[in-house]
């Protein structure tokens, strides 16, 4: 079946540091890929997405590129802020209606 | 305001006492889905619905039932809850059932089964 593997956390960074959270996937067909963010006590919300190979999703300074050859969708941000502290989930959707999430990576940014 | 509303937000119950968690969306979304979130396991899909009267099993459907009689509502039913169903539950919806559709999540329902 489909699966998503995320970099294990937690991740702790200082403000303005560079962030990478690795995400790789296995899926049949051509899934769409997503990063969702969950702030404490809230539901998940979309951070960015990419729907086909070589697409780059970007939002709020975060970026991720859909790499079909390496089956990856790594999340990056050049300079993190304290307000970026949250749990980040990599996910994929198939046309069959199924969605698969990674285990989540907790990011803490210290001032 | 566009939103997905779940109720109750918090519930403590006992083994075997039937309960229903309601989910409603006001965005005229075609697709709806239920997930449970457990520490170290991420989100796992329980059931999903690609349209009214169409429901399918996700990865962890055992012990749960759903129905989709109206487009806006997608209740999750636990006929005989057990302690291993203690979890944080999320309902989500999407405009399209295609793979590109982003999910809009409710705020979650924390269920404890004693």
How would you summarize this macromolecular structure in one to three sentences?
Chain A is an all-beta fold. Chain A has no helices and 12 strands.
Number of strands of chain B: 11
Assign a percent range to the helix content of chain B.
under 10%
How much helicity do the residues of chain A have? Answer: under 10%
Distance between the termini of chain A: 41 Å
Separation of the first and last Cα atoms of chain B: 36 Å
Q: Low-confidence stretches of chain B at least 5 residues in length (pLDDT < 50)?
A: none
Largest sheet of chain B: 7 strands, mixed
Q: Assign the structural class of chain B, choosing from mainly alpha, mainly beta, alpha/beta, alpha+beta, or little secondary structure.
A: mainly beta
Strand fraction band of chain A?
over 45%
Based on CA inertia axes, which overall geometry of chain A fits?
Answer: globular
Order of helices and strands of chain A: EEEEEEEEEEEE
Number of helices of chain A: 0
Biggest sheet overview of chain A? 6 strands, mixed
Topology, number of strands of chain A: 12
Seen as an oligomer or otherwise, the chain set is heterodimer
Radius of gyration of chain A: 13 Å
Q: Could you name the ranges of chain A where pLDDT drops below 50 across 5 or more consecutive residues? A: none
| Global Rg of chain B | 13 Å
SSE order of chain B, one letter for each helix or strand: EEEEEEEEEEE
């Amino acid at each position: 079946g489909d699966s998503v593997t995320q970099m294990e956390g937690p991740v702790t960074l200082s403000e303005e540091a560079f962030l990478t959270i690795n995400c790789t996937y296995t899926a049949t067909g051509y899934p769409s890929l997503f990063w969702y963010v969950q702030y404490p006590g809230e539901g998940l919300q979309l951070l960015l997405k990419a729907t086909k190979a070589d697409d780059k999703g970007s939002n709020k300074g975060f970026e991720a590129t859909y790499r079909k050859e390496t089956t990856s969708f790594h999340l990056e941000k050049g300079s993190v802020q304290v307000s970026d502290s949250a749990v980040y989930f990599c996910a994929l959707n198939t046309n069959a209606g199924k969605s698969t999430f990674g285990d989540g990576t907790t990011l803490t940014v210290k001032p | 305001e566009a939103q997905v509303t779940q109720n109750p937000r918090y519930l403590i119950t006992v083994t075997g006492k039937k309960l229903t968690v309601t989910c409603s969306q006001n965005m005229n979304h075609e697709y709806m889905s239920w997930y449970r979130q457990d520490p170290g396991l991420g989100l796992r899909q329980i059931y999903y619905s690609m349209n009214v009267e169409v429901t399918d099993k996700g990865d962890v459907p055992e012990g749960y039932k759903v129905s989709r009689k109206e487009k806006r509502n997608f209740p999750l039913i636990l006929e005989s809850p057990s302690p291993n169903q203690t979890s944080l539950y999320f309902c989500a919806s999407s405009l399209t059932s295609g793979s590109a559709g982003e999910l809009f999540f409710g705020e979650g329902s924390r269920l404890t089964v004693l």
